[in-house]
Each structure stands twice: as C-alpha cells, then as structure tokens.
C-alpha cells in the first residue's frame, strides 16, 4: 500500500488540471477571478462566467464609441468599487450625468487624452503599471500584434478589467488577447425600444462559438432617465494628456531581420 501511494505521488497531473490547458469541447476552468458581464445571455459563453480580471479582452466594432458602453456598463459599475475607471484615447467623453445616475461617479473617472498610436500605447502601459485600477478602456485602432502582446503581459500584473477597443477590420489579425469578440447593434426594437446588441465571440479558451448572441442591452441614457430620485451632482472628470517619451517611439519601430 505504501508502494502504491509512492507511485501515485509520482504520477504526472491530469492535463485538464493544469493552468492554461483545457479540453477542446468545453470552456476552460482556470484559477482566475472574473466579473459577471451583467448579461445573462453572454456569461454562460465566457470562461469563468464573466469578464476576466488581469487579462486583456479585445472588443471589435465598425465604429468606436457606439455600443461599448451598453455592453460594459454592468461590469464597470462593479469594477469602480476597486479603483478608478480609466479611458485612454476615448473618441468622446461619455455623458457624465448619465454615468452618475448609472452608478459611476465622475470622481471615479479618469480620461487620458491620447491621439497618436504611440501616445495611446504608452499611456495604456503606464495605466496598467499603476497601483490602483478598477477598469481600463483603451481605444487602439492601429496597434500591432507585438504591441498588444506587451499590453497583455502588463495586464497580467493587475486585478482589473482591461478592454482594448479595436476596429472590426482587425478581426483577422493575430492577437494575444485570450478573449475577443465583435460588437454591433441589432435592428431597431419594437415600439421604440432600444435595439439589442449582437455579440460574436471570435476567440475564447474553449470550443468555437458558431453563432452570434443577442443581448437586450438598453441605451445608457435611456436607462438613466428612467431612474427616479435626485441625481448626484457630477464633478468634472480628470483629463490628463499623454506624453510618451521618444524611447517608446523607437521601441515600436520594426526591427529589420
């Protein structure tokens, strides 16, 4: 009996018990923290039943600033309890009174004013190196795979929600993000209701998903206006310009073989 115990202790672990390894026909079970997306149709299709913390999630859509808030607001409300919500290169400032009514105070919001590709990449990495962060939304229309890999590595040092917002044209490009999805609006709902969202999971730690998901996500401003009671007086969001050092520009230049 003692011999059997010794032999068993030397046996290699089961492959499906190792981090980063999963069966092709089921979602990965990884030792990681997740936050519910707030969408009952989406969570069952995501490893961990939600958005991963400390990993970069890539969201692709035809035009930035249209639908990401409707998709992400439920999770962002939870994330700001741990730290600020940081926006890098946002196409426009979100509607602050609506965000306040929806549970995200302007005091919890930091917008980094970044325009060039180098500024966005540098600012995103600096935010990920910060000590306090609840969630990061970074609009990266021109990032290359090796640049995204660097940001994904920096994301693993955080316990934050990290989203890279990218153009739909990048769907066929290589990406280190463990979770990628496309996002677009469904046709107008009945009787003036807000149109739903169509989400297609392109990449996940698990089997491919061969159909799009339809989420009944209300428009943030509409939902905010439906809430009764006095709203918190919105403060001004903090805006900081991104000033990357020249070293970042040099580091991002392709190296000749």
TrEMBL record:
InterPro entries associated with the record: ImuA_translesion, P-loop_NTPase, UCP037290
Range of residues in the leader sequence: none
Protein name: SOS cell division inhibitor SulA
Organism of this sequence: Hylemonella gracilis ATCC 19624
């Amino acid at each position: 009996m003692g011999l059997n115990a010794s032999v068993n202790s030397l046996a290699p672990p089961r492959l499906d018990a190792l981090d980063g390894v999963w069966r092709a026909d089921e979602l990965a079970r990884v030792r990681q923290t997740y936050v519910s997306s707030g969408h009952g149709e989406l969570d069952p299709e995501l490893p961990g039943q939600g958005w991963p913390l400390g990993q970069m999630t890539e969201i692709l859509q035809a035009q930035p600033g249209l639908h990401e808030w409707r998709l992400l607001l439920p999770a962002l409300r939870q994330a700001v309890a741990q730290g600020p919500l940081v926006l890098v290169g946002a196409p426009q400032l979100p509607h602050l009174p609506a965000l306040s009514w929806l549970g995200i105070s302007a005091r919890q919001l930091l917008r980094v004013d970044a325009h060039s590709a180098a500024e966005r990449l540098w600012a995103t990495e600096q935010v990920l190196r910060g000590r306090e962060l609840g969630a990061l939304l970074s609009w990266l229309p021109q990032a290359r795979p090796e640049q995204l890999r660097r940001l994904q590595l920096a994301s693993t040092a955080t316990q934050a929600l990290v989203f890279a917002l990218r153009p739909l044209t990048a769907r066929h490009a290589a990406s280190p993000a463990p979770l990628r999805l496309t996002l677009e609006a469904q046709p107008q709902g009945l009787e003036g209701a807000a149109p739903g969202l169509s989400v297609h999971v392109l990449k996940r730690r698990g089997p491919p998903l061969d159909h799009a998901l339809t989420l009944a996500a209300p428009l943030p401003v509409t939902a905010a206006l439906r809430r009764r009671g006095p709203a918190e007086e919105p403060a001004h969001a903090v805006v900081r310009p991104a000033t990357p050092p020249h070293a970042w520009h040099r580091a991002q230049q392709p190296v000749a073989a």
